[in-house]
Amino acid sequence: MLENKKAKLRNFHQAKWDEPIIFELSTRGARGILVPEAEEEIRTEVGDGISRIPEHLRRKEPPALPELFQAQVLRHYLHLSQATLGADLNIEIGQGTCTMKYSPKINESFATSTKVTELHPFQTEDTVQGALEILYKTDLFLREISGLSRFVFQPGGGSHGAFTIASMIRAYHELRGESGKRDEIITTIFSHPSNAAAAAVNGFKVITLYPDKDGYPDVDALKKAVSDRTAGLMITNPEDHGLFNSKIAEFTRIVHEAGGLCSYDQANANGILGMTRALEGGFDFCFFNLHKTFSSPHGCGGPAVGAVGVRKEFEQYLPVPLVDFDGEKYFLNYDVKNTIGKVRMFYGVLPVVVRAYAWIMSLGEEGLKEVARIAVLNSNYLMRNVSKIRGASIPYDAPGKHRLEQVRYSWEKLAEDTGVTTEDVQCRMCDFGMHYWTSHHPWIIPEPFTLEPTESYSKDELDEYVAALKQVSEEAYTDPDKVKNAPYNSCIHKIDPLLLDDPEKWAITWRSYLKKHGKDIDA
Amino acid sequence: MHKVGLIVNPIAGMGGKVGLKGTDGPEIVELARKLGATAEAPFRALQALKELEILKDSIEIITCPGAMGESVANKCGFKVTIIGAEKEETSAEDTRQAASEMMKLQIELLLFAGGDGTARDIYSSIKNAMPVIGIPAGVKMHSSVFALNPKRAGELALLYLTGKVKGFREAEVMDIDEELFRKGIVSARLYGYLKIPFERRHVQNVKAATPPSEKYEQEAIAAEVVENMEQDCIYIVGPGTTTRQIMQLLGLDYSLLGVDVVSNGKLLAKDVSEKQLLEIIDDKRSKLIVTPIGGQGYILGRGNQQLSPRIIKKIGKDNIIVVSTKSKLHSLKGAPLLVDSGDGEVDEMLAGYIKVITGYKEYAVYPVSF
Asked: Which of A294, A429, B25, B117 has its CA 20 to 30 A from that of A169?
């Protein structure tokens, strides 16, 4: 494979605004818009607009919000946007497992249309027929994509989806009078850790399988794990290192024979859309992250949907309400026999479902398959190029062995040779305007990084990313301190991780920052 | 001024390249030299010290004369204070004396270059009175007090001295019977635990959960074990810091390096021999709790030889409870847990997958090999 000579490194420099926290910009009395006083005629008709609100519903104190002029607010957030990296700004392939793909902006315009944003969750069903139709039809699409028989869109994220499934597994065994006995959920170390977490939060013991020498979950390990205590299997495939477990049907068979149920984490289904289905894999449940695979931007806590699907016999456990159609109109169905109840208010995160619906409609069956093919092709192209970079390696690689949509790589050799770690590389990549993430803990693969190019990037763009990685590797071998002291062109320098690690110091809100750092909240 | 101790065992590692299995004892050193061995440890110590050059003006190196540290420390331009008199041939006794001396001088950190034998000598003098970092330079490296390589040892020392690493962990000091080892028989003993600075991986990404401390992991494991203890069953608790936590949770006296026996929440016997164990078990229902000892993941045959093949056979594979922190499993980088019971048949029986308790209500199914 010829190296792309066109791929050159950018002389990037991030904007640095030294921007204060918005609370620090506050000036007492400043307002975005001053609403003109109502005319006499209107005042006579409706009064002052305040006194009609019952006394007990009125605030005694004004809210503790920053007070700014409109232009200041706009500038503040533009500054912040320039001080970040993200999917609409840079080649965003460094956050593997998160499917940071391009979300067509036309889908955004549907989701932010007033037809969606002005709906109220308490509106009567006959006034939200369009919204219910979108929910109903997106369910039909996902049934086709997964082979399962029913979906709900209430879970507000992938982990919430996994939690919903773990709750249904528990409900199933409870109904059969086996809840005390069946208390173990099996997962694998390269499955997304939320599967283990969802099981644990539901009170299950978690049994984690470690891979064989080739990186695959081992049937013998599974046989050792199953017993009459097995409640279920919660597993990802392909796993987080990008390997597809082709023995998956045997896995589900073994678990079913032991009396357990099987859940397929398809949070990231980008590499298998239209290629494999949960049903044929022998699964009882699955979930898709609409905010990864299906065109909602993914990041930082939402808005998101973990769309949960079940086989026919498990529909009775689904959270309510379901969206149904009686031949004339769509309605919310609360009549679900053994429902686990509600997992979220109302009926789901509608804007995310709207984007997914639009995306699926625009691609059709062949288009979805094309997404998978290109995502996998891009990933394998990237893998062969990264493998040529000094100090980088691909654990569990073998000649002719392909991965699906992502690969977990290792800088172990680089770290041994030069002392430069994957975290150092992360900082240096910022200097080229590239986002790079290490990997989920635990780091089974030493000094890991996970790249997921999705279907959104061209060959030239992938080459540019590889050129940046190659440059960092060359620097590590010739001038390791340069990498270790990076970043230089980012808006901030290294953050001392000890501060993030210290419960006495960390603060995720302004209020807790003031409290922990001994500052007066009213000052 | 940081006071840092440095002990180099100049003969450590000499045997390795000429096919000897260690350099304990003067006649072996002599043999190694005849075979053309050269001193490796000073060079390795130098690699580690280079990482500290940035603190050159604020470090005082307390070390031994000549090849035991002085020459290396001088090469880096540190302020050097020498203790003890120079000798032509050095021995294990010199290491022990130097370590005791340094403890009296209240050094902040002791760096030593050597192998298992050196670690053992230092342990015998200082126990866990002060933190140490092992610069790997020996032939035998069963102890887990050593950094991955000399450069890492230096980096860790720098992080510790600059206050970036504040925690400690207890790391196993193990050594084998060299006499038997040269005949091809491995028999490693657990001698104790040295205190080493513990670099908890700095987590920069918010998506990655902060790894819990080793102590927390051990407490979680102990809670799972104790909660599932059965009435009237005899529990044989092997050595290790993870198994120690079980004894502490039960509120029982224990031997850190030996094997203790518990039943119905009471201590039946402490630090038992194989013979005593066989008598205690007799034909009673028994379970054995073991944890990986040392850096290579041995659950049997290193540091717990009391747990002989006869005992393993009597107890049976299904009654062996393996406990390990996740960090320990992950440090094996995918390599299996190991057994070396001394009986091929028993090793064969134990090979395959085994369930490992890794936390409260958390298990791993992990391969075992021999």
From this structure: A294
